[in-house]
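Q: For a teaching handout, I want to show students what a protein-ligand complex looks like in token form. Below are the inputs, and the small molecule is adenosine-5'-triphosphate. Please produce the holo structure.
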Amino acid sequence: MIEVRGLTKRYGSRTAVDGLSFDVRPGRVTGFLGPNGAGKSTTLRMVLDLDRPTAGSAHIGGRRYRELACPLREVGALLDAGAAHGGRTARGHLLILAESNRIGAKRVDEVLARVGLEPAARTRIKGFSLGMRQRLGIAAALLGDPPVLLFDEPVNGLDPEGIRWIRDLMRSLAAEGRTVLVSSHLMSEMAVTADHLIVIGQGRLLADTGMSDFITTNARTTVLVRSPRPGELACVLDRAHIASDPQDDGSLLVAGVGADAARIGDLAAEAGLPVHELTVLRASLEDAYLAMTAGATEFAASKREG
Ligand SMILES: Nc1ncnc2c1ncn2[C@@H]1O[C@H](COP(=O)(O)OP(=O)(O)OP(=O)(O)O)[C@@H](O)[C@H]1O
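A: Here is the structure, written as tokens, with adenosine-5'-triphosphate included.
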């Protein structure tokens, strides 16, 4: 469990993180989203005590990072996959980390196997591809078998196979009961990886909600209705105060509050109009995310003007 309370970071006159409070719970993947510069990395750095908060606190399992007796056993993090020394081998790099945290060599071999780096264990890191570096960074995060894991943009620059591998890993870590917080810009990827979302904009909390609630609340569902008599159907809907938008192919799209497939179907039946298709077009996470963050930008702009 991670508990963030009133977390604030100012760099001079710029407020990067602004009174942020949220919990990250175990047993599920929590996606951490926000536009560029929203303050995600700064937040993660403060949770890991790599940056000092101007105000507020972050606790991991009830303690601040600096109070953890053996941090690697409490929290694992992938912040910058390029951080390992290029002259070392993958195994050598992990052995040094393990030794300084009193973790045995057996665990090094276990994590190398878990991330699929066994064949490259004795290869120098400077010859590693981006995907191999990400795997090595994840191996380091897993070294202490920690209950809490933080990943900042783990799929950056990975090929589809690497992206799928990370997705499966995140989900299996959560299924083991761990707390998993992952930031990403790839909405399609987040949509299939995360169970819960924390969205920030300009350092402030915009949403802390389940994935499906987030989409339902922030993006309009649309209903597509197709009838051989679209003009008459549009009039029937109009009389029920449901606005429809005629499409070139003869179908009608109904968005917003009137987008209720059952009601549209009932109205057509009452009017004796045939319906050949009635489809609920669900919004994507990307639609919902863009709608929400666009709103946040407008809000910030009007606030500044006011
Ligand atoms: N060391 C620093 N000195 C001054 N400003 C900083 C520093 N680190 C971050 N910032 C500023 O704080 C804000 C938040 O940055 P941060 O990197 O946390 O955002 P982010 O959400 O991780 O963005 P991205 O998605 O682009 O990585 C930005 O405006 C950034 O310019």
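A: Two things your students might notice: Confidence is low (pLDDT under 50) at residues 301-306. The pocket of adenosine-5'-triphosphate is lined by residues 11, 14, 16, 34, 36-42 (CB under 6 Å).
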